[in-house]
Amino acid sequence: MAAAPQPANPFCASCRRPLAGRFCSNCGEEQLDFHNLTVRHFLAHSLHEIFELDGKIWRTLRTLLFHPGLLAAEYSAGRRRLYANPFRLLITAAILYELLTSGGVQVAMNVGPIVVSLAPTAVKESTGIAETVKGVDRFHLLGGLLAKQQHEKLESESAREKFHQHLAKFAEPLSFANVLLLAMALHALFGRRRHHFVEHGVFAMHFMSFVLLTASLFAPIALLLRAGWGSVVLPDVFAIVAWQFLYLVIAIRRFYFGLHIVGFAPKLYAGFGAVAVYFLNSVFITAVQTLGAAIALWMAGSRA
To answer: What are 105-118's pLDDT values in tens digits?
Structure first.
């Protein structure tokens, strides 16, 4: 069978610039030929896109999980082509966390009289408003608002749906507010080590992405409790929290001090910095969730 004729088009299909080779020098679009329209090429190209282009995501996730602070260091050094954008990574981590914790997860830590969430509280949409507020309101600030809004309409099915819809709507923007607060804290702590605020913001996005991904491991806790495996829950929670904290120590030392710098002082600074950042991040998570619940409660009650 004779080969299909090739299209004689000397211009780029996307930007209409003259072509001098297979790829456009202006926008990078590949020159079209009839081979591109075969089923074999379509399938091969699709697989390549999944495992090669999105391979950037897998490489980024692997680096994020097992090389603390390296992604932020690479970004600040200008080596960005091999990794996903920090903003895209955070969105991906948030989506994965939402999917993996759809059955609900609540993990908190007592710090003296204060109770803070170690990860964003995930609740089932079938959960009542009062129970959801109780799980989110670690600072006990919403009791008065809940009592003020408490009436029969607030307990209705439509009010519950509206409440959870608003809570979900504000979850993502408030998560970025959490990142902004964390970046401000990092700038206050380590501003002399890294002068640009964006660097602290990138570190905050990477750390929050790590927290969301590892906090997804809390999801099976409810299943373990129902199955009578309560004895393994505490060690599992401790292992995840220890991983997050040690990760943060190494990440801070690598990004703000450099792993190549020897001596006890950098390790000490990284340790104290990790304690402060881990606690502040938990406080920020708890605070923005409380704000989101307050907004959702007010909107559900006002429109009930």
So the answer is: 777 777 777 888 87
